[in-house]
From TrEMBL:
Name of the protein: ABC transporter substrate-binding protein
Superkingdom in the source lineage: Bacteria
PANTHER family from the UniProt entry: BLR7848 PROTEIN, LEUCINE-SPECIFIC-BINDING PROTEIN
Keyword Signal: yes
Keywords, comma-separated and alphabetical: Signal
Family designation: Belongs to the leucine-binding protein family.
Organism annotation: Plantactinospora alkalitolerans
Domain Leucine-binding protein: 46-378
């Protein structure tokens, strides 16, 4: 059965973003307040990264570090043009160990001691939400990889904060369309604890109402990585749902699928993008996730050889380099690549690495990245365009695009 494509954004929405961007860009042509370090090497663009290289988020953080170094090496081959200089990108990477307090501490150190011009990272909602207020206080542009909707809100208090991942409502609408197409009337929701899960509950509840499907039960997953997910899965299975949405990040996504199968649930499992990591398709998870679906940016499918656009060629080159260096490609990886490119674009347009000017030009980019398309504007600091999303299924232990 054919699965419908995700609804594209309306022209009026894009028009509103473009108009707001034009207004602020005109102001950026005038002298602006200068923020950030003045003692950095004039030949460098210094980018800090706070990543979950250990702890519960390591399945996501490791991919970002790989992508970060691949893209930085590519850009440094010719240098980054900033005004009348060509700068090299210098990375300052910190392992936040999936600990929000450590992530906040690193942000202060990166801003004041390492004098970074911009900060990227925070794969988990908890670490990004800890970073955001500190980055805002330091007037340090921060680009988050996490999936909670409130990372950039309220916008008046998050003027230096941006987010790359899709909005929960766009992911939920795509899942709901798949559920409607497959005629599932009773749906269970197994959802992460914390801000990422909060966004999922709100979005899935609203989206299911729009397709006349019933949310028969919503159950939170425990926070600890080594926790027993069996009781949560059994509560869902007891309601005999036609389909189950698992809204979590790896490694919880694969563990939740295993727990559901152990609880004798045999129906379809539908994931949000947080599931798409190498760990989810590991040998221990493969039997449970085979046939499962996920909504994810189209980068998960790699890049077609017939796509000769600038973005398509960049995506193909990135995937080739990633596979060559690491053996396999994961769709979550390109966020770090896109974040660095967005910072570079901002520096090039601003002709400066001043934090205030970088923030202004970050907030006015409408561009196609490797993971998908972004439309930033003064009224919107994230996430990815809805028409960059696709539906994938696990077939023979690998992700295959359905629509």
């Amino acid at each position: 059965m054919a699965v419908p494509t995700v609804e594209a954004w309306t022209l009026s929405r894009r028009g509103l973003l473009a108009a707001a961007a034009t207004t602020l860009l005109a102001a950026c042509g005038r002298e602006e307040e200068r923020t950030g370090p003045s003692g950095s090497d004039a030949r460098e663009l210094v980018v800090g990264a706070s990543l979950e290289l250990s702890g519960v988020g390591k399945a996501l953080g490791a991919q970002q570090e790989r992508a970060l170094r691949i893209t930085t090496d590519i850009l440094n081959e010719g240098g980054v043009p900033v005004g009348n200089l060509r700068r090299n990108i210098r990375l300052v990477v910190r392992d936040n160990a999936s600990d929000p307090r450590l992530a906040a501490q690193h942000t202060t150190e990166l801003a004041t001691r390492d004098n970074v011009h911009a900060l990227i990272g925070g794969c988990l909602a908890e670490t990004s939400l800890a970073i955001a207020p500190v980055a805002q206080q330091q007037h340090l542009p921060f680009i988050s990889f996490a999936a909670a909707d409130n990372i950039t809100l309220p916008l008046s208090q998050r003027t230096f904060i941006f987010k790359l991942t899709p909005d929960a409502r766009d992911v939920a609408r795509a899942l709901a369309q798949l559920i409607r197409t497959q005629r599932h009337e009773r749906v269970g929701l197994l959802v992460a604890s914390g801000p990422h899960g909060d966004s999922g509950v709100r979005a899935v509840t609203a989206a299911l109402k729009g397709v006349n499907s019933d949310l028969v039960r919503s159950v939170r997953l425990p926070r600890a990585e080594d926790a027993d997910l069996g009781p949560a899965a059994e509560r869902i299975a007891a309601k005999n749902p036609d389909a189950v949405v698992v809204w979590a990040t790896a490694p919880f996504s694969g563990a939740a699928a295993r727990a559901l199968r152990k609880a004798d649930y045999t129906g379809p499992i539908l994931f949000d993008p947080g599931a798409v990591a190498e760990e989810t398709l590991s040998e221990k998870n493969t039997p449970a996730v085979e046939g499962a679906y996920a909504v994810h940016p189209i980068s998960l499918g790699g890049s077609s050889l017939t796509n000769t656009t600038t973005a398509g060629l960049a995506r193909r080159d990135f995937v080739y380099r990633y596979v060559h260096e690491h053996g396999s490609f994961s769709g979550f990886a390109p966020y770090a690549s896109d974040a660095v490119q967005l910072v570079v674009n901002a520096a090039r347009l601003a002709k400066s690495v001043d934090r205030g000017r970088l923030r202004a030009y970050l907030g006015n980019q409408i561009t196609e990245g490797i993971a998908g398309a972004y439309s930033f504007a003064p009224i919107r600091h994230g996430g990815m365009d809805a028409d960059s999303l696709g539906i994938f299924t696990v077939s023979s232990g690998a992700w295959s695009r359905v629509s």
